[in-house]
Design goal:
This protein is 31% helix and 23% strand. The termini are far apart. The chain is an alpha/beta fold and 371 residues long.
Length: 371
């Protein structure tokens, strides 16, 4: 079965996801603003859910069409082959959004889409009432400039929820963004990774998972595992495939420090649950005392800033201080994410490369120093 998929994503992640999908053997990959389209079979559906480090969720694209009236929306939705995915007992709630479109009432669009799907399934299953007691098939709609896209979610909880982080500090970085920072920093399985403001350890844990090539979703479940139309074997097969690709990484080690002892305790617990505690050493100390223990250093960090934990003046002082201890040295690279466009002035030197990414809904810049 060839299936069309959508991965919704924050702006800036499209190219990383596209590159990753190629390594996972997906087909017809096309990046757009805020989403990546691709196709593949049932195995690819399971593989991307289990193995993607950067995707937020995997959705089956049921169809797209133009709609400027509620009648257009009803007929367009009803014309799609919902019976290929939803059985007579499945639950199929509807949610979504509309922007820059004639149809702007989300509640009305939600009700019309639900009614259209029901009418379609009535004609296919020849029943008048749907109990919806079976597995949940979450229908999501997006209406942008009168173009409607209708999908069924396969992930359930967002894919950033790997399952290891039950404890977090005040302002944790998302696992998918932490993985993206590791990828952008060209982290290798023989590198020495540092995060001197590590909080609950997410960057270090994602780096260790990447170094050991442990699939981020290997220990969690997905809503599509309960879909009757998908063979149960695909999930077993893809988990076995993912485990077969794990590797030893004798050269890799990670060092994390933070001034907050409670955050470090959470980080240690998170690393143990992720199965990478043997690759990470934690120490309580101020970032101003940072001094790498190795000749080479790949440093990736997410310092506190105004919209998270510190006021503007305190941020500027922190940036000045880390600019002094993050020395320009051969074999040392520094990746720092911040929403502060004046970061370089406080840090004391221009970045060798900059890139835009989002931390939640906060627009950030990734400052990379490697020369």
């Amino acid at each position: 079965m060839n299936i069309n998929f959508v991965i919704p994503c924050l702006l800036g992640m499209e190219s990383l996801i596209s590159k990753e999908l190629k390594t996972l053997e997906a087909e017809n990959i096309a990046a757009e603003n805020g989403r990546v389209l691709f196709s593949g079979d049932e195995n690819i559906l399971a593989r991307v859910n289990i193995c993607s480090r950067f995707a937020e969720r995997v959705q089956i694209l049921i169809g797209s069409f133009e709609a400027e009236s509620f009648e257009d929306l009803f007929q367009g939705t009803k014309s799609l082959e919902w019976e290929n995915w939803i059985s007579s007992t499945d639950a199929f709630p509807v949610k979504g959004y509309s922007i820059n479109s004639t149809l702007f009432s989300v509640r009305d669009c939600q009700a019309i889409i639900k009614k259209a799907v029901v009418e379609r399934l009535k004609s296919k299953y020849h029943i008048e009432w749907f109990e919806e007691t079976g597995p949940v098939h979450q229908i999501q709609f997006s209406i942008n400039k009168n173009t409607v896209s209708l999908v069924i979610d396969t992930s359930g909880q967002g894919l950033h929820k790997r399952g290891y982080r039950t404890e977090a500090n005040e302002a944790p970085i998302k696992e998918t963004l932490a993985a993206a920072l590791c990828d952008l920093s060209y982290l290798k399985p023989y590198h020495k990774l540092y995060d001197p403001m590590c909080g609950s350890g997410t960057i270090l844990i994602e780096g260790a998972l990447m170094a050991r090539n442990i699939a981020p979703g290997i220990n969690r479940n997905f809503s599509a595992e309960r879909f009757d139309v998908l063979p149960r074997e695909i999930w077993l097969r893809e988990r076995e495939r993912a485990r077969s690709l794990e590797r030893e990484c004798r050269g890799f080690f990670a060092y994390g420090s933070d001034i907050d002892g409670n955050a470090l305790q959470a980080a240690k617990s998170n690393a143990e649950r992720a199965g990478v505690a043997d690759l990470i050493e934690f120490k309580q100390t101020d970032v101003r005392n940072f001094s790498p223990q190795t000749e080479t250093c790949t440093l990736i960090t997410n310092p506190p800033y105004g919209e998270r934990m510190l006021d503007t003046g305190a941020c500027e002082m922190l940036y000045k201080d880390i600019g002094k201890v993050f020395e320009r040295r051969r074999g040392h690279s520094y990746t720092i994410i911040s929403p502060d466009e004046e970061f370089e002035a406080a840090f004391g030197r221009k970045a060798d490369k900059r890139r835009k990414l989002y931390n939640g809904m906060i627009k950030c810049l990734v400052y990379m120093y490697y020369k």
